[in-house]
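We emphasize that the prediction below concerns an isolated chain of 248 residues; any contacts that depend on oligomerization or on bound cofactors are therefore not represented. The input was used exactly as deposited, without trimming of termini.
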Amino acid sequence: MVPLAIAFLVTALLYASVGFGGGSTYTALLALAEVDYRVLPLLSLACNLVVVAGSTVRFARARVTPWGRALLLTAIAAPAAFLGGLTPIAEQGFVALLGTSLLFTALTMMLPVAKRPEGEGERGRVARYAPFAALPLGYISGLVGIGGGIFLAPLLHLVRWDSARAIAATASLFILVNSLFGLAGQVLKGGEGRFAAAVDLGLPLLVAVAIGGQIGSLLALRYLPQRWIRWGTGALTAFVGGRLLLNL
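Result of the prediction step, given as a token string:
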């Protein structure tokens, strides 16, 4: 349990630095530890909530969250995340969907992205259509048990939706709400037995991600350059996605 908790702490630190919760990597680590895959979403989403709650508060205090547009995205995605959490999925399909999604996400994160010019009217032309992607992203997030920011952030970068800091803040809020709704769906689907199993295993992991998340969100706001944020996230998600698919 100690090595797993350390791995969760490091994961939370890295993901929180880019506004993510780390649910995808928590899922991979738990799978490698041979935890029942039906319990994985419960643990991952709970850890997400702990990490992004702190990140969301820090981003809000730094006044980098574009609240109007961020709340629109989350309001569209949240009901879909709940439905995704309720949807049954077999183990092989779960791992294949998660691994493929992470590899695609890593690719988009590593593509060159033009800097957003100053001024509200100069953001990418297709950025206004970003809310249409929130519904399927929310459903996939609830289905595989992650928060969805790992899917949303690359899309927002590609369409030059806003600055890297604003996108990180939006992803953090998106993950917070989706994780809450997705967790509710997963609990209803799994029943009391799986929830109790998740609670028994999860306390040390929750403490670890709480510490790592606070450190990571502080680094994002004060120290890490925007390019490091994108490339670091892309490399991490590529590793996790490839590892999951190789284990099929």
